[in-house]
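FIELD: query
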Amino acid sequence: MDGGSELKKQTAQEIDAMMDSVGRAARIAARDLAQTPRAAKDKALLAAAKAMRAHAGEIKTANAKDMAVGSEKNLTPALMDRLELNDSRIEAMAKGLEDIAALNDPVGEVIMSTTRPNGLKIERVRTPLGVIGIIYESRPNVTADAGALCLKAGNACILRGGSESFHSSRAILACLHDGLRAAGLPETCIQMVPTTDRAAVGKMLTMTAHIDVIVPRGGQSLVDLVMRESRVPTFQHLSGLCHTYIHKAADAEKARKIVLNAKLRRTGICGSTETLLIDRDVADHMLPGILGDLIKAGCEIRGDATVQKLDARAKAATEDDWSTEYLDAILSVRVVDGIDQALDHIQRYGSSHTESIITEDAGAAEQFLNTLDSAIVMHNASTQFADGGEFGMGAEIGIATGKLHARGPVGVEQLTTFKYKVRGTGQTRP
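FIELD: result
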């Protein structure tokens, strides 16, 4: 198992040459992968899962280096949690590879077929996108998820993880390469940018000859950079400013359980609830218990005037709080005058990621699900389920919040496009 070594500080010309070489190799690999049968791709994924378990100790050693650097840099607890790899998380990565292998191969799937009156047979068939660049921060598990999903969908990929997870990502990449070699596939199917120099990101964003799609997965500053400067098409991934709304017809115990999980199961993921809305009709009855649970578990509450009256421990929410993705044990809470005001709040401050309504009123639930234009809308469920693995996709590259091509969890189907195959018997057009 060899993860390679980080390159020393390089000139702009050296980085350009290095990235062009990576891009050319990826383009060649993508051409071959488009014709690779499912058996070979699945063999690579299963062998990589086996390697990941066999080399768990080395992965944890590499991760310890990253955790030490993160501590020196005073990364927030949320970022440190994203960065950490333990036995259960390594096993989850390995299991994710196996789950992806078990998925149907989307490449070659006929998604439409028709025969025209003139006898022409037309099929719309799934094909790989080609070469996908993934730029991400902090979470080394993205290396495994993104590499595996791209491979299953017949795409080569170029991974550029954050500098804080460099050693961990290299160790994971080495396991993926073990799998590729076991299946007789080139390591260039899954490449990692071999430097932490930020100039490599800028170069990736201009590599239109080598990269077909860029997927940013990280904080708002990264997403803003990619959306502003990329000349390569992107899957838009905005911040996870997720809302949970407690309707007046909510079950109190159900609401209490869901809110605690939606906020605190893992605060550093994009599916964590950042704002809680609750109908005024039930605030006096339901909110004290919910706030008590959250505060007892270490969550800071920032609320409006009504919330502060119900619990003096709540801090006053500012206008900025309604539009902040905390990624931490902080929750903004607002009391609203019914579902219309809740919908207005979400549409004004939300990021079109994930929203959930808690109610036993089916009509109110349908109004919520149908009105909001977020990528994921839920009824009586924790927003922490906003995850490709929980959607049966094996894993995800990210949650796309744009409206073109992909929305919600980006899995193997979203990593394909299509082409039309037209078969004739000599027809000419009059």
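FIELD: remark
The chain has 14 helices and 16 strands.
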